[in-house]
Amino acid sequence: MKVFGERKRAVAALAAAGALLALAACTPGQGVPAASSPSASAAGSTSEPSTTAPPSPSAKPGTSATVGALVADFPEQLLPVMPNAKVESSSFDKTGTPATVALVGKITSPAAAVVAYYSKVLENQGFKAVPGETVGSVASKDFLRGDNETVNLAVVETAGVSTFTIGANVAAESVK
Which domain holds residue 145? Predict the structure, then answer.
């Protein structure tokens, strides 16, 4: 049974990584703002570069993703940004059932501190931690609320910097 639980957590971690790759693929020029092209600079443009990907022709209204910031209407009450963390990317799809929310951030704190912060935040919202602390060498924690609301947190620490991915599948009323 323990092996099954580790596989399930590994699948969740891989799904989160896949979502991040898909999010990264949505940005123009691999994260380089479109306004930073030589022609835009030569024209003397003073507008701020945008890091929000343009809507996909197949994107549904109510879905959004961005790099370097929180998307509009991001449910910070559900997944707040850890103090002193830098947002790498975020996404939010409130059109599906369940609604999906994802946040990727970096912070100069140990992985254990990130896990402790989000564990407290989620437990205060009624989520229960599922047994298990890692998938391989990656700090990973799963949370469950009720029968069908889930959150997965994965943290990789390298040279004193923790990069964390937190994704949630929750009822629509949880993100209003």
Answer: 2-175
